[in-house]
Structure formats: structure tokens, C-alpha cells
Design goal:
- The complex is a heterodimer of chains A (187) and B (276).
- Chain A contains 6 helices and 5 strands, in the order E-H-H-E-H-E-H-E-H-E-H.
- By secondary structure, chain A is an alpha/beta fold.
- In chain A, helix 3 packs parallel to helix 4.
- Chain B has 276 residues and is of the alpha+beta class.
- Chain B has a 5-stranded mixed β-sheet.
- In chain B, a hairpin with a 7-residue loop joins strand 6 and strand 7.
- In chain B, helix 1 runs antiparallel to helix 4, helix 5 crosses helix 7 and helix 7 packs antiparallel against helix 8.
- Chain B starts with 5 loop residues before the first helix and ends in an 8-residue tail after the last strand.
- The chains are: A alpha/beta (187), B alpha+beta (276).
Chain lengths: 187, 276
């Protein structure tokens, strides 16, 4: 996977700032990649040197509107986020669903996890309103660290894959167009 | 439990769920960190040394594996120390969350005993709001505002009273700087965990203004007779009382006239009257 596609940028939108810390603790934690690992592997035969686990790059917003502006800025700077974790209830501003609608207007590629402690809308309503459920996952609070890590990990991969597919489709479309033009010229 | 306060209850439950989430994450992190403590390595190294009991010197200096042991022990020590500190910090955080849960539970069970409903407070936000309220004046005098905010948890206390104190301190700092013509005035705001009291946060407001003579330091917070500065200083008197009401303290230090002053407000992160 090339560098351009290894996008580890994550946006957390939650009105509770303590939850920002929770996400940061999980996603920005450097795994056990210290110098010690190297020396351990040399000294003990049964210890293998661990792969470096790349951290995520986490930004946070405490209101939907602010998150939306951050997505806009990211798109302008051509540094899109791969994944957004969005809380369901964020008084006084937009709720999670409204926020996600706005985010997708700006960045249709964004993978989204909606976080909730209890249902404000029935799930069917949410998914119906958003109508893009292949890019939407649900995370229940209280969440497990490993759950959040894996969601972030697999969704950033999915983001990269869908971008790759899209660029291949674009290439294909371009090729088809050129062919069509040639055919027109030939006739 | 009394029936009418469903809204308060729902809000309390919502907060409890959020705190519970942080408890979960914190405990999970401690668990992960402890698993990464390579304590067994110490035994393994001891075994290796024991296996070369007769010629440890040769083993540590000549043997390809043995030679690596001293360096390894250094690294291991550093690593364990580092992780130990991290885990301790996380345990302190966990403890703070548990206290918050305890407090929320107390409100849920008996709001009147918990001293009424309090707000979740972001200390740095309270400082920023107070600065914003005086921005026009700060700009006019040409005071540079410097923020030195360390991460501290959210607090639970009566935010209105905290706002009053911080507002008074900032107004006092501006007045002190207005009195002295200096090319560059600075207002420095600090938010940090209290270095000598666990569970307390320290807010400081430092100015480059007229300062206070050493023999006056103790009188700043006394009730003032009416006069030119009476209003302002009686605000400081009130602030000190309010700080005490919030189970905190307000102090001042100045190196002398024209040397500026620094006010230090220490507050418990969670304030419960009647805590039993």
C-alpha cells in the first residue's frame, strides 16, 4: 500500500470532552515498540521482534458543526479524514444523524461510526435517513478498547481500498472514453 | 426517590454512562499496560547467569548472548520505569472517574444531600471565557495573553461561582497593568494539576502590573474600607471567601511594587458539600 493511501487520520465528534481522551488513549497509544523489543529479540530465542504498530492521528470536535468545518478544511487541504466517530446526542447542536449527513455532503468517502449509549432513534430510522449503510457502523458505549482499535484499523483499510477501487474505475472510465473517441474518429 | 426530577435523573444517567465509558477505557488500558511489563525477563536473565555460575565474568564479556545482558538490563529497567509511571498515572485517572461516579450516584439518590446540582467544568474554558469578556480592554491596553494549560480532568462544581472568581482575578490583573506604563504587558494564565494536593486543580493568573508591597500581601484579601479601590479589592475579599466555600484556597504573591503579581486558586476537582 503506498503512502498516499495509508491514511490514519481519524475525527472524533462528541460533546463530552472526556470521551475525546478515551479515543486518544486507545488510538494514539504507542504500542510496545521500544528499543527493548529489539534487545529482547536478540537475547531470548523464543521472542520475535514485534512489528511496529502504527498509531492513528486523532483530531476531536465537541459539536457537529465544528466537526463539519474540520472536514471542510481537511478536504480543502487535500488531507481527508479516513474515519469519523460521531456521537448520537450532542446538545445543543446537531445530533449525530444530522452531523453525518453534513459530513457526507462534504466527503462522501468518509467511513463513519456512530456512537451511542442508548437509542434516540430506532436504528432502522437512522439507517433509512442516512441511506448509505455500507459506510456506517454502530458502536455501543461503554466501548472496549480493542473494539475501537479494530474498527479504526479495518475502516482505514476499507477507506484505502475503496479509494483504490475508485481510482481504478476512474482509469477504466477514462480508457473507455478514449476508446469511444477513437472509434468516433475512425468512423 | 422523588418523582418530579426525571430530567435531572436522565441527565445524571447520561453523565454516568459517559463516565462509565472512561472507566472502561482506563481499566482496559491499565490491563494492556500491565501485560507489557516484562517482569518474567528478570527471572530469565537470572537463570542464564546461574547456568554460567562458575564463569559469569567470561559469560558477560565474551559470550555472544551473555555480552548483551548488561545493555538489556539497562533497557529493561528504563522500560519498566516508564511503564510503571504510565500505569500509575492511569490509575490516578481511574480513581478520579470513580469519584465522579460516586458523586453522580449521590445526586441520583439524594440531590439535596449532594448540595444541589453542579456542572461539569472545563477549567481552561472558564479561563478563556473570562478573557474573552475582557478582550476589548486587553487589546486597548496592549496586553498579550499567554495560556499555559496542562491537561486536567473535568471538574464538577458550581461553575457560576468559579466564573465569578476567575472574572475578578482577570479584572484585577488588567487594572494592575493599566496603572503602570510598560511597553509589553503580559497576562499569563495557568491551568495545571495541583502539584502538592491530589484531586486539586490549580488556576493561576499572572500579570506584569503594579505589584504589591510585601507588607500588603496579607491584606489583599481583607475586607476593605470604602475608597478608590474599594470595589475591586472587596471583590478579591469575596473571591477568597467563595474559594473557601468551594473547599479551595486563593493566595497571592508579588515580588514587590511594579513587579507584577500572581494569584493562585487551588480547587478540588470535585466539590461535594456534606461528603460523608
Amino acid at each position: 500500500m503506498d503512502m498516499e493511501q495509508a491514511n490514519r487520520r481519524i475525527l472524533v465528534i462528541d460533546d463530552n470532552v472526556a470521551i475525546h481522551d478515551d479515543f486518544r488513549k486507545i488510538l494514539e497509544r504507542s504500542m510496545d515498540t521500544s528499543l527493548l523489543q529489539e534487545v529482547r529479540a536478540e537475547l531470548f530465542d523464543d521472542v520475535e521482534e514485534q512489528k511496529v504498530v502504527e498509531k492513528f492521528d486523532v483530531d476531536c470536535a465537541d459539536q457537529g458543526q465544528m466537526g463539519y468545518r474540520m472536514i471542510q478544511d481537511a478536504m480543502k487541504a487535500e488531507r481527508p479524514y479516513a474515519v469519523a466517530f460521531v456521537d448520537m446526542r450532542m446538545p445543543p447542536g446537531w445530533d449525530g444523524v444530522e452531523t453525518i449527513e453534513h459530513l457526507w455532503q462534504e466527503d462522501p468517502e468518509l467511513q463513519v461510526v456512530i456512537c451511542t449509549a442508548f437509542s434516540d432513534h430506532a436504528w432502522e430510522d437512522v439507517i433509512q435517513r442516512l441511506d448509505k449503510n455500507d459506510k456506517l457502523l454502530i458502536l455501543r458505549k461503554p466501548f472496549d478498547n480493542i473494539e475501537v482499535w479494530q474498527l479504526a484499523n479495518s475502516l482505514t483499510k476499507r477507506w484505502a481500498e475503496s479509494r483504490q477501487v475508485k481510482s481504478q474505475l476512474d482509469l477504466l472510465a477514462q480508457w473507455a472514453e478514449e476508446r469511444a473517441e477513437e472509434t468516433v474518429k475512425m468512423n | 426517590m422523588s418523582a418530579p426530577s426525571t430530567q435531572v435523573e436522565e441527565s445524571v444517567f447520561h453523565k454516568m454512562r459517559n463516565v462509565l465509558n472512561s472507566v472502561h477505557v482506563s481499566a482496559g488500558l491499565i490491563n494492556d499496560q500491565l501485560r507489557e511489563f516484562h517482569v518474567d525477563d528478570v527471572t530469565r536473565v537470572a537463570d542464564m547467569l546461574e547456568a554460567h555460575d562458575g564463569n559469569v565474568g567470561w559469560y558477560l564479556t565474551q559470550d555472544p548472548k551473555g555480552k548483551k545482558i548488561p545493555h538489556f538490563l539497562g533497557q529493561l529497567g528504563q522500560d519498566l520505569g516508564h511503564k510503571h509511571l504510565h500505569t500509575l498515572t492511569e490509575l490516578t485517572t481511574l480513581n478520579y472517574y470513580l469519584e465522579q461516579l460516586e458523586y453522580l450516584l449521590a445526586i441520583g439518590q439524594a440531590p439535596e444531600r449532594a448540595g444541589g446540582y453542579k456542572d461539569t467544568v472545563h477549567f481552561s474554558a472558564v479561563m478563556d471565557e473570562a478573557v474573552m469578556a475582557h478582550q476589548g480592554e486587553l487589546d486597548r491596553i496592549g496586553i498579550e495573553v499567554i495560556r499555559e494549560y496542562s491537561p486536567v480532568g473535568e471538574g464538577v462544581l458550581e461553575v457560576a461561582r468559579l466564573r465569578t472568581i476567575v472574572g475578578n482575578l482577570i479584572r484585577n490583573a488588567i487594572n494592575a497593568m493599566r496603572e503602570v506604563a510598560k511597553p509589553a504587558h503580559r497576562l499569563v494564565l495557568y491551568v495545571l494539576p495541583c502539584p502538592d494536593r491530589e484531586g486539586f486543580v490549580r488556576l493561576q493568573v499572572e500579570d506584569t502590573g503594579c505589584g504589591i508591597a510585601s507588607d500588603c500581601l496579607t491584606r489583599v484579601f481583607s475586607p476593605q474600607p470604602s475608597g478608590t479601590q474599594a470595589d475591586l479589592l472587596s471583590n478579591l475579599h469575596m473571591s477568597a471567601i467563595t474559594a473557601k466555600d468551594l473547599s479551595g484556597s486563593l493566595r497571592v504573591w508579588s515580588d514587590g511594587p511594579n513587579q507584577g503579581a500572581i494569584f493562585t486558586l487551588d480547587l478540588p476537582v470535585i466539590h461535594m458539600e456534606d461528603k460523608r
